[in-house]
């Protein structure tokens, strides 16, 4: 018995061949009908997961973008605050330098005035001492030149 006769065609179909073909078709159909819903379900779950992951990724990107914008705003505010602090420190430093310069100038002027007063006092003391000793020195010098003792004149007061 042959399963496939040599003169097989659509018009010369034999019942045994059609029965075998029908059984095989039923088995294939049964397999496909049982597997196809599972395959479709797996594909649907995969699509849902993929789309859900994409949506979650989009939400995470949006949240990250919002946080980045907030961080940039905080950084900009911090930079502005730092600039204000630097400017205030610069102004305070300038004021402190000016105050220190004024104090230094006052101290210099005081030291100069004190030094000039000391010099004037020492000059006056030196002049007074010289006025007392000049007549004695002059008489001693004249005595050496003349060769005789010359009395020193008494200073007139």
UniProtKB/TrEMBL annotation:
Name one cellular component (GO) term: plasma membrane
Q: Which UniProt keywords apply?
A: ATP synthesis, Cell membrane, CF(0), Hydrogen ion transport, Ion transport, Membrane, Transmembrane, Transmembrane helix, Transport
Q: Which InterPro entries match?
A: ATP_synth_B-like_membr_sf, ATP_synth_b/b'su_bac/chlpt, ATP_synthase_B_chain
Is Cell membrane set as a keyword in this record?
yes
Intracellular or extracellular location(s)? Cell membrane
Tell me the subunit arrangement: F-type ATPases have 2 components, F(1) - the catalytic core - and F(0) - the membrane proton channel. F(1) has five subunits: alpha(3), beta(3), gamma(1), delta(1), epsilon(1). F(0) has three main subunits: a(1), b(2) and c(10-14). The alpha and beta chains form an alternating ring which encloses part of the gamma chain. F(1) is attached to F(0) by a central stalk formed by the gamma and epsilon chains, while a peripheral stalk is formed by the delta and b chains.
Q: What is this protein called?
A: ATP synthase subunit b
